[in-house]
Every structure is written in structure tokens, then in C-alpha cells.
Amino acid sequence: MAHWLFKSEPFKFSFTDLKAKGATGAEWDGVRNYQARNNMRAMQLGDQGFFYHSNEGLAVVGICEVIALSHPDSTTDDPRWDCVDVRAVRDIKRPVTLAEIKAEPSLSKMSLVTSMRLSVQPVTDEEWETVLAMAER
């Protein structure tokens, strides 16, 4: 299973909003970046991702899961843009802020640190475990 990070501005779509969608989840739509789109095309059912609140909060706040493979994004007629569907799995014990992530030397190569603007990012197994451990502190 691969791991990912999904960024969303909480005033547009928050982790609370995703949780409210229940088991049916929601499309991760509106992505208009080729690298982020390609990341979604690489996803498999059951892959998990961190849900990250950008702009407000700047923190990993929960875990979501891919429940539908890459398919055309319903918010556009442009065939170049795909999305996946995700559902909320659980909150993490406490939010892990961007400042904490940047301060952790073992996360210095994490996409969240090196590619701040990318809305859908890969997360290595080691990064995944480190952030989960940080949430437990």
C-alpha cells in the first residue's frame, strides 16, 4: 500500500466535511496540476493518505483512504483532468503542524517540505510512520 498527502483549504473542504460524507466519500476534484494528477493516477484502492489543512491550520489532521481509482473529474469537461474518490478513515490523535514537520530532520525530504504547492503528494513509508508517531506525542 502506498501513502499520500491530500491538501485542502479547510474553508473550502475540510476533514470534517469529508467525514460528513461517510462511507461514500467524495471526489478529490478540482486538481489542475499534472504532477498531482499523475499521483492520483498511480493510486490504488485502499491506499491511505494524510488529510492536510492548507492556508488555515497548516497541519495534518486526519487519515483518508482511496475508494475509487482515477477517473474523469466531474468538475470539468477537459479530458486531461482526473481525480480519485476518498473517504475519511480517522482523525489523528493531535494535528501535526507544518512547523513541526519542518523541524523534524528525518522529514527534510518530504514533499510537503520540498514541494509545498503540490496538492496531492507521495509520502514514503518512513515519513508516514514518523508523522503518525509525532501525532502521538
TrEMBL record:
A Pfam family: EVE
Family matches, as SUPFAM superfamilies: PUA domain-like
Domain of life: Bacteria
Organism: Pleomorphomonas diazotrophica
Transmembrane parts of this sequence: none
InterPro entries registered for this protein in UniProt: 5hmC_binding, EVE_domain, PUA-like_sf, THYN1-like_EVE
Domain EVE: 2-134
Designated name of the protein: EVE domain-containing protein
PANTHER family, A to Z: THYMOCYTE NUCLEAR PROTEIN 1 (PTHR14087)
